[in-house]
From TrEMBL:
Record flagged with keyword Mitochondrion: no
Coiled-coil intervals, chain numbering: none
Family annotation (CDD domains): ThiF_MoeB_HesA_family (cd00757)
Superkingdom classification of source: Archaea
Protein name: Adenylyltransferase and sulfurtransferase
GO molecular function: ATP binding; nucleotidyltransferase activity; sulfotransferase activity; thiosulfate-cyanide sulfurtransferase activity; ubiquitin-like modifier activating enzyme activity
InterPro entries assigned to the protein according to its UniProt record, in alphabetical order: ThiF/MoeB/HesA, ThiF_NAD_FAD-bd, Ubiquitin-activating_enz
Gene3D superfamilies named in the record: NAD(P)-binding Rossmann-like Domain
Cellular compartments per GO CC: cytosol
Pfam family, one: ThiF
Length: 269
C-alpha cells in the first residue's frame, strides 16, 4: 500500500491513525477503497455519513427516489430544503460538504438486471435497500462476482444484519426465496421508528469499514437481530445451503435467467 497522507489527512483521520488496528496504512487503504451503497434512505443515510467521515475514498450511491417530507423522520442525510430533489443528489451534496477526500458517484436509478454491472466496479457493497428484488439481485450478483455485502433490513421496531463474503453462506442460504408478493408490508404502510435504521445502518457501516480494512470478525454466517423495544441483540448462526441457487453445489453463473419480482405491498395512498 503506497502511503501518501497529507497534513490535512493526518489531522482529519488522527483518531484512526493512532490505533494500531487502523494506523496510517489502514487509513490509506480506506482512502483507496470503493464502496457502493444501495439505497439512500433510512439505512443508507447513516452508512453514507459514516463511510464519508471515515474517508472511504470512493462512494457510489444508487437510488431512484426523490426526497419526500415524510422521509425526514429517519433519512438523516437529507434536509427540509431537499424535498423534491433526487436522493442521490442530496446525499452526494452531504458527502462533499463533510469530506472533500471522497469521490462520490450517484446513480439515479433502481438497480435491475439490466444495470447491475455497475456494482462490479466496487470493492464492497452495502445493501441498504428496502425491497426483496433488490436484495436478492445484490446477493446473487455479488456472490457470482466475489464482492462482499453488508446486509441490513428493518421492520417497525426490529432490524437484522448479516455480512455476506465470497467463502461464507449467502442471503439465499438464509432465505432461499422472497416471500410471495403482497405478503410483506413495506415501510410506507407499516411505519418505522425513526432511529431504528440509524442503529442498523451504523452496524452496516461498521461492517463495510472492517471489510475495507480486512480487520476483525465480520458478521459472516451469523444473523444479528435487534429489538429496539426490548433493547436486545441476538445472534443466530446459519450455514451454507448445498442447494443454494448461487453458492450451492450447482451454482448459477449469471443473474440473466433469475426473476426478481416485487414482494412488497404497494401503498394505497
Ligand atoms: Zn447461498
Amino acid at each position: 500500500m503506497s502511503l501518501s497522507l497529507d497534513a490535512t489527512q493526518l489531522d482529519r483521520y488522527s483518531r484512526h491513525i493512532i490505533m494500531d488496528e487502523v494506523g496510517p496504512d489502514g487509513q490509506a487503504r480506506l482512502l483507496d477503497a470503493s464502496v457502493l451503497v444501495v439505497g439512500a434512505g433510512g439505512l443508507g443515510s447513516p452508512v453514507i455519513q459514516y463511510l464519508a467521515a471515515a474517508g472511504v475514498g470512493h462512494l457510489g450511491i444508487v437510488d431512484d427516489d426523490v426526497v419526500e417530507r415524510s422521509n425526514l423522520q429517519r433519512q438523516v442525510v437529507h434536509g427540509d430544503d431537499d424535498v423534491g430533489t433526487p436522493k442521490v443528489e442530496s446525499a452526494a451534496a452531504f458527502v462533499r460538504r463533510l469530506n472533500p477526500d471522497v469521490d462520490v458517484d450517484g446513480y439515479e436509478t433502481r438497480l435491475t438486471k439490466e444495470n447491475v454491472e455497475l456494482v462490479a466496479d466496487y470493492d464492497v457493497v452495502v445493501d441498504a435497500s428496502d425491497n426483496f428484488p433488490t436484495r436478492y439481485l445484490v446477493n446473487d450478483f455479488c456472490r457470482i462476482h466475489d464482492i462482499p455485502v453488508a446486509h441490513g433490513a428493518i421492520y417497525k421496531f426490529e432490524g437484522q444484519a448479516t455480512t455476506l463474503v465470497p467463502d461464507g453462506p449467502c442471503y439465499r442460504c438464509l432465505f432461499p426465496e422472497a416471500p410471495e408478493p403482497g405478503t410483506v408490508p413495506d415501510c410506507a404502510t407499516t411505519g418505522v421508528l425513526g432511529v431504528l435504521p440509524g442503529t442498523l445502518g451504523c452496524i452496516q457501516a461498521t461492517e463495510a469499514v472492517k471489510l475495507a480494512l480486512d480487520a476483525g470478525d465480520p458478521l459472516v454466517g451469523r444473523l444479528l437481530f435487534y429489538d429496539a423495544m426490548d433493547m436486545t441483540f441476538e445472534t443466530v448462526p446459519y450455514r451454507q445451503n448445498p442447494d443454494c441457487l448461487v453458492c450451492g453445489d450447482d451454482p448459477i453463473d449469471s443473474v440473466a435467467d433469475v426473476e426478481y419480482t416485487d414482494a412488497c405491498t404497494v401503498s394505497s395512498d
